[in-house]
Amino acid sequence: MLQNNFGLNEKELLILKKLDSFSKIQDFINNIPINFEKDGKDTCLSPRRVLRENRAHCIEGALLAALAIRLNGLGESLVVDMRASQGDYDHVIAVFKQNGKWGAITKTNHAVLRYREPIYDSVHELIMSYFHEYTNEKGNKTLREFSEPINLAIFDNTDWVTSEDNLWFIHDYIDRVKHYKILSEKQEKNLRKADLLEIQSGKLTEWKK
Asked: Is the dihedral of CA 29, 61, 65, 147 positive or negative?
């Protein structure tokens, strides 16, 4: 059961309590090296392990960001899953509302699929802001579905914030919830591929293996 500041210790709380704005949370997430899972084992690290091991990929960064939002009283701990086609990677983001508008905090190693200002009227509108940049190496635009916002408070009867085990139960739950299609079959058939410059820009990375 989550209690006493989510089970975090004084050092962890001190770090997260400094992140008292959405911009500060995104800056902090950006500065965490990307988790390349170098040992070849997939991970879904808890916020405590991300802080300790100083590494994160998208879902790990989203969980930590959502925790920081809730811990600082900025809103609920909400995440959204973006589902891709053609073998491309899904992307999990932390979403928030400010002045009635939606924005997003994300962890990515690429120049796109990053922070979104809280200027969107709906989650659907927010997700569509990622559509043209969500491409694979062949230039195919692959974003196809998004989930409803998932409030991580539903996991408060677990130790998801401080667990030493991988959070596969959260990962699997996010994958199971209802997702909404963003394109019709006709729209999918008419998609234009990204051009060479767009493909090259998508290869820009922040952290090297």
From this structure: positive
**Phi, psi torsion values for 36, nearest 5 degrees:** -85, 0
Among all chains, which residue has been given the structure tokens 């992307």? 91
In a domain, 133, yes or no: yes
- Count how many residues are written for the chain: 209
Per-residue pLDDT reduced to its tens digit, 106-161: 999 999 999 999 999 999 999 999 999 999 999 999 999 999 999 999 999 999 99
pLDDT band at 24 (very low <50, low <70, confident <90, very high): very high
The number of domains in the chain is 1
- Establish if 209 belongs to a structural domain: no
d(CA 123, CA 80): 9
Whether 4 is covered by a domain: the verdict is: no
φ and ψ of 124, to 5 deg: -60, -45
Task: Identify the domain containing residue 167 by its residue range.
Answer: 9-201
The pLDDT tens digits for 184-200 are 999 999 999 999 999 99
Q: Are 32 and 108 in contact (CB under 8 A)?
A: no
Say if residues 34 and 21 touch (Cβ distance below 8 Å).
no
